C-alpha cells in the first residue's frame, strides 16, 4: 500500500484544493502537520518518541470548511479519524460520556479500516474457496471416490495401507471423469448459467446477545462494552440452513470465507499501531468548553474547566485502556475547532492552550468563494444535482449568471439572518430546484437550463419577505 503520509505539503494542498475552496492558511497548516508525521518516522529511534505532534486550533464561523478540511486530510492520509463534539463530554463524576471514549472510538474505526484492507487483500482466496464450496453444493463429491491411499480401516479409521494399482485404476478413472464434470460446472457457474437456481447452505447467524446498557456516571462505557463481549462468548453463533439463489449464496459464502481467513490478532495489532501513530481526533465546538472571560456565569459552566482538565492528559499524552489493549495518545494528532464568538482561545486553561501551538483563522466566505464552491470542487453541489436529475432522464445545466445569482442571494441571506457559511448554498439550491425535483419524473423534455431569471422567480417571494426568509432560507 502506498504511504499517503509521505505526500509533500504542496501535494497535500493540491489534493485538498479539489474539494475545499479557499482557506489556504488552514490547508497549509494541516499539510505541514501531515508531512511532519512522515518526517518523525525518519528520525532515529531515541529522538523519534520525543517528537510530539503540533496540534491545531481552527478558528472561524460555521460553514467555512473546518470539519471538511480535517475529514479530507484523514481520507487523504488513510488515517483513522474520529470527529467528536467537546460539548458532549462531562467531567468525571457527572452523567455523560467521558473523554477517553474518543480514543476507544478511534480504535474501533481503525479496526474496521484495517479489517477492510485485509479482506480486500484476501478477496481472491475467499472467492476461490467460496467457488469450491458452491461446486460441492451443485455437484456433491462421490462418496465412493478414493485417492491413492485407502481410507477404509477398522471402525472407519483412516488406514495408510497402499492399494494395488489394479484396485486403484477404476477409482482413478471415475475420479478423472468427476474432475472433468466439476470443471465444466465451474465454467457454467462463472458464466452465470446457475443464476436462477437455488441451493441450500448452512450459514452462521449474526451474533445475537442481550443488550446491556449501563446508565451511570462517565467512565463506565468500557464496562458496558466488555459485558457485551462476554455475553457474545456465552451465547455462541448459531448455524442456520437457508435456501438462496446461487449469486446470493456465493456472496454469503465469500463473506464467510473472508471472516475465516482474516487474522484478527494481526488486525488488532495493526489497528492499535495505526491509532497511536497516525490517528486524527477532531475536537469540534471546543469554544463551548472555554469559560467566558470576565463573566460571573454559573450553571452549565460549572463543568467546563473540568472537561478541559480531563481532556488535558489525553492531548498531552497518556495511555488509555481499551478492550483491545492499551493505546498511547502521545502521537495522535488533535485538531480542534470553534467559532469563538463569545469566548476566545485565551479563555482555555493555560495548559490546554500550550498543547495547541498552531492557531489558524478561517475567513468568512463571500460571493466569489460561493461561485467557486458551486462549480470547482469534484463534489460541487451543481454536479450533484446534475447527476441526481440525470437518473430521471433530465439533462440539467446551470447558466453562469444563475450560479452567480445563487451565490449573491446566499451571501445576502447570511448577512440579514444568521451567518452559516457555505451551508446556506444547500438551502438556496434546494429551494431553486424544488419545483423541478418534484416534477422531474413527469416532465417530457430531456433538458433544463437554470437561468438567473429562473432563480429570481423561485426565490422572489422569500427574499422580499424578510420574516419568511428566516424560516425558509
From TrEMBL:
Q: Pfam families attached here?
A: AAA (PF00004), AAA_2 (PF07724)
Q: Which InterPro entries match?
A: AAA+_ATPase, ATP-dep_Clp_protease_ClpX, ATPase_AAA_core, Clp_ATPase_C, HslU, P-loop_NTPase
Record's Gene Ontology CC terms? HslUV protease complex
Q: What superkingdom does the record give? A: Bacteria
Protein keywords: ATP-binding, Chaperone, Cytoplasm, Hydrolase, Nucleotide-binding, Protease
Q: Coiled coil: which residue ranges?
A: none
Q: Where does it primarily localize?
A: cytoplasm
Record-level GO BP terms: protein unfolding
Annotated ranges, domain Clp ATPase C-terminal = 365-459
Q: What GO MF annotations does this protein's record show? A: ATP binding; ATP hydrolysis activity; peptidase activity; proteasome-activating activity
Annotated binding of ATP, by residue: 21, 63-68, 284, 351, 423
Indicate the segments forming the AAA+ ATPase domain, all copies: 52-346
Q: Where in the cell is it found?
A: Cytoplasm
Q: What does this protein do?
A: ATPase subunit of a proteasome-like degradation complex; this subunit has chaperone activity. The binding of ATP and its subsequent hydrolysis by HslU are essential for unfolding of protein substrates subsequently hydrolyzed by HslV. HslU recognizes the N-terminal part of its protein substrates and unfolds these before they are guided to HslV for hydrolysis.
Protein family membership: Belongs to the ClpX chaperone family. HslU subfamily.
Q: How does it assemble?
A: A double ring-shaped homohexamer of HslV is capped on each side by a ring-shaped HslU homohexamer. The assembly of the HslU/HslV complex is dependent on binding of ATP.
Descriptive protein name: ATP-dependent protease ATPase subunit HslU
- According to its UniProt entry, this protein's organism is Desulfofustis glycolicus DSM 9705
